[in-house]
Design a protein that fits this description.
By secondary structure, the chain is α+β, with helices and mostly antiparallel strands. It has a domain of about 130 residues: Glutaredoxin (3-Layer(aba) Sandwich), CATH 3.40.30. It contains six helices and five strands. Strands 1-3-2-4-5 form a five-stranded mixed beta sheet, with helices on one face. α3 crosses α5 and α4 runs parallel beside α6. The longest helix is centred in the first third of the chain and has 26 residues. Keywords: Isomerase, Signal. GO terms for molecular function: isomerase activity. InterPro entries: Thioredoxin-like_sf (IPR036249), Thioredoxin_domain (IPR013766). This is Thiol-disulfide isomerase/thioredoxin. It holds the Pfam family Thioredoxin.
């Protein structure tokens, strides 16, 4: 019987040890381990949005006031002194007049005159009505907005009413921007710098 006693004791001890580990497991449940989250790789810095060297097509004034374009637009705008007396005469004459400005962001004359033109039209509360079209060096746009407008030099500022052109200032004014605009809008004789 001794011979059976020893294996029975060993078996009882195994059962006891195995029960103990089961009761410990149920008495104090082990908290689930948090899943290991790999560190997110460093996000590469977003490249700066590059401004094009040249704008073409219908353009908003704000595009000229920012980035590399703003480097020339803003100083020319700030330094220009509007002729207040002529502006007072201009304001009533601009009623129902369409204003289209063709300019090149690559062109020195456009860089000088465009901000001045905007400053004058700001003074008469008409700058929001300017149809601004930027052209490439061949004076064209991808949409063909220059077609039928005879654009040979820029800037070209065109005044029209009821679909009929009243006159234009091409590249630079003869007297001053305000004086030239006034002649055109009053219907006085006026020829731009490149008129035949």
């Amino acid at each position: 019987m001794n011979m059976y006693k020893l294996p029975l004791i060993a078996l009882a001890l195994c059962a006891l040890v195995s029960c103990k580990s089961k009761s410990t497991a149920t008495a104090t449940p082990k908290a689930p381990e948090a899943p290991v989250v790999a560190e997110a790789p460093e996000k590469p810095e977003a490249p700066a949005v590059q401004q094009p060297q040249m704008l073409t097509g219908k353009t908003e004034r704000q595009e000229l006031q920012t980035g590399t374009f703003g480097e020339w637009f803003n100083p020319f705008y700030a330094s220009y002194r509007v002729d207040e007396d002529l502006v007072k005469e201009l304001k009533p004459l601009l009623k129902d007049v369409d204003i289209t400005l063709f300019m090149g962001t690559w062109c020195g004359d456009s860089k000088r005159e465009t901000p001045r033109i905007y400053k004058i039209f700001d003074a008469v509360d008409k700058s929001d009505e300017i149809k601004l079209i930027t052209v490439d060096r061949s004076k064209s746009t991808p949409q063909g907005l220059e077609e039928g407008k005879d654009i040979k030099r820029v800037p070209t500022l065109i005044f029209s009413k009821d679909g009929k052109e009243l006159g234009r200032i091409v590249e630079y004014p003869i007297d001053s921007l305000e004086a030239d605009m006034l002649k055109i809008l009053k219907g006085e004789p006026y020829q731009h710098a490149y008129a035949d």
